[in-house]
Amino acid sequence: xxxxxxxxxxxxxxxxxxxxxxxxxxxxxxxxxxxxxxxxxxxxxxxxxxxxxxxxxxxxxxxxxxxxxxxxxxxxxxxxxxxxxxxxxxxxxxxxxxxxxxxxxxxxxxxxxxxxxxxxxxxxxxxxxxxxxxxxxxxxxxxxxxxxxxxxxxxxxxxxxxxxxxxxxxxxxxxxxxxxxxxxxxxxxxxxxxxxxxxxxxxxxxxxxx
Length: 210
Prior knowledge:
alpha/beta, six-stranded parallel sheet, 50% helix
């Protein structure tokens, strides 16, 4: 396997954590999962976005920074590979969608101070799914505070992610997961494993599942 630090990203409900767990188990890798349930502002945000967006995003940024900083600076002699189900830049992308302009500019200043202190992934796996698929996945996992997520909100996040990937030279493997079933279809998971044996160029690279 060509990469020591792999990050998986995608919209809400794209299947990031499922793939991260599978890869971690396969490679006996250290696993970093976002602790979103610890954010006390998350349920309140979906009830009143205008009031709670800024504290929500600040809490997420602080927690993600602490988690990545602690884990990535602690070497594990038995686990040379690290798999994460979020990219720290996710902070900025969600803030861009959720915050009004003046609050976003302040948030961006804080992000720009913190981000250079973190190790960046060797490869970003971006899982892309159409909005109906995301809505279906969100419904299946049945988290009460996610029931109010709209298609419009998911589309805004999708567009923000896509714009970021197009504009930044992050080494990215773009995977269409419209019909993906990494748990139930071994061929889908094997295609990803085979891809990770290859060296990709900076920028966008594409992977098609069978």
